[in-house]
Amino acid sequence: MFTTVFLLEFQSWYWRGRELGDPELRRAYDALKPPTTPEEFEQGFLALLRSDDTAARGIALDFYDRGEMTSRFVGANAFEEYEDEVFAVARQLLREPPWPGDEHTSRGANHASALLVLRRGGLDCDDAEDVNAVAAVVERMPEGELGENALMAARTLLEDQEEEGEAPDPRLTALVTRLEACEARVEEIADLGDDPGPEATAALVRATEDEEWRVRQQAAAALAAGERFYAHRALLERLAESWGAEEESDARDEVHDALGDGPHSEYWEGSEPETAELRAAHRELRSPTGESAHRGAFRTLLHSGRPVAVGIALDHFHHEDGLTRFGLDDAEHADEALAAARDVLGQPPSAADLSPAVGAGANHASALDIVQELGGTEDADVLAAALRAEGAPALVRDRAVRAASACLERWETPDEEVVAALEGPIFDGSLDMDIRTVALDALFGLTSPRAAAVCLRAARAAELPIQVQGVIGLTSMSLVDEHRDLLREVVAAWPDDAGERALDIRAELL
After folding, report:
1. Out of 185, 265, 328, 331, which could bridge 315 as a Cys pair, Cβ 3.0 to 4.6 Å?
2. DSSP track, 152-206
3. Cis status of the peptide bond prior to 35, with omega within 30 of 0
4. Per the confidence metrics, is the pTM higher than 0.85?
5. SS in 3 state form for 306-365?
6. Are 474 and 483 a contacting pair, CB within 8 Å?
7. Which among 246, 250, 219, 248 is positioned nearest to 235, based on CA atoms?
């Protein structure tokens, strides 16, 4: 019963990824996952349920609900005998303040777990405390799964009252009606946000004055997305200042994120542009006041001729939350960015003190990211030079390898000089194995005699990861038959922990 697959493969509904701080609780949680005995499984559940840790108790409630949900497949809930204790813990969680939320769990996760099990028979429609506790959650106008669970619990109470011949609680009835209407209106506003037209934009602006705060925040979030942000920043700032501390939603977070600073840069943290004018442009780039100002700030930095400023501009062009953060089409500046990157790669590596976070060569790292994205065959020489640079910082070598990989995949005809230059990092034992295998991966599938020769050399290498990638490379080039005897000899010596792909190839060749 306890070891049914429905429970052993389960982690929780609302606390996935949440690390329990207490080692004993972590062990209890681990006992809920295979391999385990039925006794350890039960003890682990009870340890979580009876702890003082909110997340641990929430996980236990989620397991109870999972057991109840799947009981029809196995005959009964594995935790059925602890039902009264489960309901008591759920009531305790429901009366606690809502979980604040973090990177792993959403707001009110404790209430979501509690309501999920309480609606399975743990609510008493004649108990004023139960009715008031559920009403208090609904009154906060929760969103997502917490909102769904709150509505289910509230409807359960109202239905039970009707079945017992009692008048449905008027406060709870009104709150359910309000939350249902709010959810429908929020969905309408979300759909409007997908419409780029001026009429939709005007409707969103009007919705920022809606009587329901969640509707106002959803409308604001739609105005904060894409190019609408530029025209409505002042309105968004006023709205954000007006929201009370208890008015919390994902939409509110989206607005705050839009109004907050974007990324500083990729490689220049700890440094600021060289002049007051460039520092002002950087501030505008991170938190733009308008579309024209945003583009102007980017070009000011890009064409400044100053290493930190130019590097930051290149980073913003490449970063997914950089120049395109509010929907700008960066294709308009692609030629400028690539020209600047080529110019930077013709200069010496920047000094370490210019980029304290990453050290020397940050300018080349920034430039190589642009070549990775935009480089053409005319950039083959500069890529090969970057790959062969004596004493290049590890970061620069890494960026060069990844740029070469992207370019070889993009170019119609592989450049033999770039292929030859990749041989250096592939067989450089001083580099991390990850970047060495990335360099080797870049050769896969290429129609290139030199690439085939490098993969063959790799297949004969002493280091297993390089050897495996070399064999995979030869198979990707359809060269197995040409080297079958060698490859059979190589793969026969591979250990069973060489990796799934390696074992698949070994099975094919032996």
Report:
1. 265
2. HHHHHHHHHHHHTTPPPPHHHHHHHHHHHHHHHHHHHHHHHHT--SHHHHHHHHH
3. yes
4. no
5. CHHHHHHHHHHHHCCCCCCCCCCCHHHHHHHHHHHHHHHHCCCCCCHHHCCCCCCCHHHH
6. yes
7. 219
What's the rounded Cα separation, in Å, for the pair 453 and 320?
A: 37
> CA-to-CA distance for 73 and 68, rounded, in angstroms?
10
Contact in structure between 96 and 54 (CB atoms under 8 Å) = yes
**Worst-scoring range by mean pLDDT, 13-17, 275-279, 316-320?**
13-17
Lookup: tokens for 471: 């064999």
**Separation between Cα atoms, residue 175 and residue 170, nearest integer Å:** 9
Spell out a b/e string for 197-228, using b for 16 or more CB atoms within 10 Å of the CB, else e.
eeebbebbbebbebebbbbbbbbbbbbbbbeb
The angle that helices 500-509 and 484-492 make with each other, rounded to 10 degrees, is 130
Q: What is the pLDDT of residues 55-94, one digit of tens each?
A: 999 999 999 998 888 777 666 777 888 899 999 999 999 9
Residue from 491, 431, 504, 424 nearest 464 by CA: 491
Q: Kindly provide the b/e burial profile for residues 417-427, where b requires at least 16 CB atoms within 10 angstroms of the residue's own CB.
A: bbbbbbbbbbb
Helices (H) and strands (E) in the chain, counts: 27, 0
pLDDT at 279 exceeding the cut of 90: yes
Sign of the Cα torsion 118, 122, 126, 129 reads negative
Distance between CA atoms of residues 366 and 317, nearest Å:
10
Which structure tokens are listed for 279?
A: 């520092």
pLDDT recorded at residue 34? 67
Check pLDDT > 50 for residue 1: no
Chain mean pLDDT for the chain = 90
Burial 243-265 (b: 16+ CB within 10 A, else e): beeeebbebbebbeebbeebbbb
Kindly report which listed range (13-17, 83-87, 224-228, 484-488) carries the lowest average pLDDT score. 484-488
Cβ-based burial of 292 (10 A; exposed 0-12, middle 13-18, buried ≥19): exposed
Side-chain half-sphere CA neighbours of 51 within 13 A: 26
